[in-house]
Amino acid sequence: MSRSTLLSQVYFFLAVVGLLWSWSYFIEYFATADGFLLQSFFSSVMNNAASSGVAVDAALAGVVFSVMAVSNAAQDGVKWPWIYVLLTFLVGLCVAIPLYFGFRERARAITMP
Residue ranges per domain, the chain? Predict the structure, then answer.
């Protein structure tokens, strides 16, 4: 097994962990909230300085990752970079980043002997 193949498997595993772990909190929130209202969700996220700082940090990291994914996708051998942008803001950065890196490593494993 090549290094790239092993790395891609690690990244894909981390994407699944990120999805399950982060969304367990989102599901719990929406199960106890007054429906699926994004305004209510974002007011809860920005409820105090600590959570606001984490939210702003994650949002800016998502923008930076999106720019990187779109601009480097062809060079990295990753198809459909806009999917990672959508995943970043609709599912989570902890899913989009490892998926991008996993497919990048898979492309490297195919192109490298």
Answer: 3-111
pTM for the predicted model, two decimal places: 0.89
CA angle, 38 then 42 then 23, to 5°: 75
Alpha helices by DSSP H, the chain:
3-32, 38-45, 49-76, 81-90, 93-111
- pLDDT tens string, the chain, 113 residues long: the values are 788 789 999 999 999 999 999 999 999 988 887 777 778 888 888 999 999 999 999 999 999 999 999 999 999 999 999 999 999 999 999 999 999 999 999 999 888 76
Backbone phi and psi for residue 39, each to the nearest 5 degrees, phi listed first: -60, -45
